[in-house]
Amino acid sequence: MSWMLAAGAIAGALGLLLIALLTIRLLAYRASAPVCAGEVELERIPFRRYAPAMRLLSREDLDFLAQQPGYRASIGRKLRKTRRRIFRKYIRELAADFHRIHASARRIAAESPDPNSDLVAKLMRQQMQFWWAMLRLELRMFAPGLGQIDMTELLTAIDEIRIDALRATPRAA
Questions:
Q1: Residue 134: helix, strand or coil by DSSP?
Q2: CA nearest to 105, candidates 36, 31, 27
Q3: Which of 28, 120, 133, 149 is positioned for an S-S bond with 153, CB 3.0–4.6 A?
Q4: What global pTM score does this model have?
Q5: Closest CA to 154 of 85, 101, 84
Q6: 41 exposed, middle or buried (CB, 10 Å; 0-12, 13-18, 19+)?
């Protein structure tokens, strides 16, 4: 019975440690986002620059490399580590884009002469969805067996905010 309590305590401590590490990682993404100093051109967000990131963590290249003569497991580990580091740089940029677009959308909602309570509620919901998707993505990078890493949900969240902000933008007559 005491071994079950000890195992439960260890599992709980490891779970809390994992949550703390993931939270620190998310806060680092948030802290690295620049403060929005100027206007964001909502029509011209270059999402295609994230296309290479979608392939960085795929298994195909690693599987191909493993089939080559002279391959060692250390080569695969080093490649995965390097690709995760590069992928996190893409994610940092994506989080910065999210912050810029979200700040722009909040400003549009605040400055709009029409009441935009529905836009404010959407922005809050989209922000929660974005950070929840970031948390799941980090968890999958930490424990690769938890599923495929996919940035589509993050890109979709940013695009939804961008579209909502464009719709709420007052047009010149």
A1: helix
A2: 36
A3: 133
A4: 0.69
A5: 101
A6: exposed
pLDDT tens digits, 39-91: 556 666 667 777 788 777 777 888 888 898 998 999 888 988 898 888 888 88
CA–CA gap between residue 117 and residue 166 (Å, rounded):
16
**Residue 151, SS3 per DSSP:** coil
Eight-state DSSP code of residue 103: H
Q: How buried is 162 (Cβ within 10 angstroms: 0-12 exposed, 13-18 middle, 19+ buried)? A: buried
The Cα–Cα gap between 145 and 155 comes to 23
Distances (CA, A) of 111 to 114, 120, 121, 140, 170: 9, 12, 16, 39, 9
Please state the φ and ψ torsions of residue 149, each to the nearest 5 degrees. Answer: -85, 125
CB 97 within 8 A of CB 159: no
- Angstrom distances, CA of residue 67 to CA of 57, 73, 83, 113, 121: 18, 11, 19, 63, 51
What does the pLDDT average to over 115-121?
73
